[in-house]
Amino acid sequence: VDRQAGLGRMNLALRRMRATDDEAISLRQSLSGAKDDLAGGRAAFGEHHLTIAVRGTDMAAVDGHVAEVQSTLTDLGLIAVREEIGLEAAWWAQFPGNFPYVARRALISSRNFASLASCHNFPSGRATGNHWGDAVTILESTAAGPYHFNFHQGDLGNFTIIGPSGSGKTVVLNFLLAQARKFSPRIIFFDKDRGAELFIRAIGGVYDILRPGMAAALNPLQIDDTPENRRFLIDWIGRLVARPGEPLTPEELHRIQEAVDASYGAPHAHRRLRYFAQLFRGSERPHANDLWSRLRPWWGEGEHAWLFDNAEDRTDIAAQTVGFDMTRILDTPTLRTPAMMYLFHRVEERLDGTPAIIVIDEGWKALDDDIFVQKIKDWEKTIRKRNGIVGFATQSAEDALSSKIASAIVEQAATQIFMANAKARREDYCDGFGLTSHEYDLIRSLPDSAHCFLIKHGNDSVVARLNLGGESDILTILSGRERTVRLLDDIRAQVGDDPDDWLPRLLKVA
User: Fold this and answer.
1) What is the pairing mode between strands 356-361 and 186-191?
2) What fold, for 137-217+314-470?
3) Contact yes or no for 295/248 (Cβ under 8 A)
4) Contacts 24+ apart (CB under 8 A), 50-59
5) Rounded to whole angstroms, how far apart are CA atoms 475 and 137?
6) Is residue 22 predicted with pLDDT exceeding 70?
7) Helix, strand or coil, per DSSP, at residue 274
8) What letter does residue 135 receive in the DSSP assignment?
9) Angle between helices 482-495 and 499-509 (to 10 degrees)
10) Rounded to whole angstroms, how far apart are CA atoms 206 and 498?
11) What residue segments make up the domains of the chain, in order of their start?
12) Fewer CB within 10 Å of terminal CB in the chain, N or C?
């Protein structure tokens, strides 16, 4: 607005206030101050308008809402007019560039106009140009805007997801994996409580359950004959015969190496622990603590023979999606550590530069062993170089942080996801995972019914929402509830493993 025109409109407003004996003295003073700023060139003035569109299910509802809006504006010192004749013009005036439709104009200073400009925003993620291309998925933020979710920050894509039982952790994790399938990644899932079995089988993946009493499909002695595999088998056999707190002697390591070399010269069917153990006979005088005796629990009728002493190695790491249920061995380090050593070795063999996602549910427990403390950082570097990422999920932040590998995993996580947890402890979330007090308060205050969770990714910190309430079939598959998994067992026993056969029946009765 031209300076003289602006001064004229202000003088007119002041004269009207004096003529009507308006008692708003402070308002007169503010108007006089604005006039002085304009005359002195300290401020400029332009025109603005405010239109509020009110909606309702019927006219009575509209009238009620209009009265509520007018009352609120009056409390703020604003005079609101309900448009009648100028109703349509006021509607079109809301849209950019429609200045001719503005019927009610008011002056606004450059200072106040600057106050209308939003100089803050909410993180929206990165839609394109990420390490794997487009964003993994788009989530709704609590600011009602989009958040483009990615695992990667640069070329680092490791992630953690933390939330108590019932917080929706399994749904969020399986949903993100489902969305990431657009990159055609190889997915290897070390599962707990069969939470991902429905999802993995539904997309045509292979799923194996490791539990006592059921012969596992593992036989490391039958892997291909390569220098790397021979070195691995020496370490792996050494783990089976290890005694707590006592490293193997050079003589014992040499005998293990000789046995591994001899095993590769045997027929394929004889590359099995029950035959391998006999290679230790004759290499030393038998005694209660010799290598043969220490290997005894792992073959034949031994306590742990079900895990590795199998006629064939049917570990199908070559499949696009593979899952292993580790529930029954997670709490038994004697079984857990050699199993994870072998499975991770096979996974490393398959990484060829194509996208790969390795997920370890209760990963801090699965790898909580001195042998992995040195290896985990090397593994993460190797997997990163080969275009893979590792995801760790857990129910307990406290248990995760108390494990031997906690620091290595927390430091290497590009993305952290925290589910709502009213019982979260400040020392775990703030001191352990580096959350701010505000982020910690958010995690404690988010209601379970909101389907919200906190995402920390690079410099982003955003509360996102994943509400699948209207998608019961999708929730059935992603949630992996115990009752649904039992139904899956019954239906698969009748119709087989093809998801085209069992999935429709499951969704019908679940």
Assistant:
1) parallel
2) Rossmann fold (3.40.50)
3) no
4) 50/78, 51/90, 51/91, 51/93, 51/94, 52/80, 53/91, 53/94
5) 17
6) no
7) helix
8) -
9) 130
10) 11
11) 3-116, 137-217+314-470, 220-305, 480-510
12) N
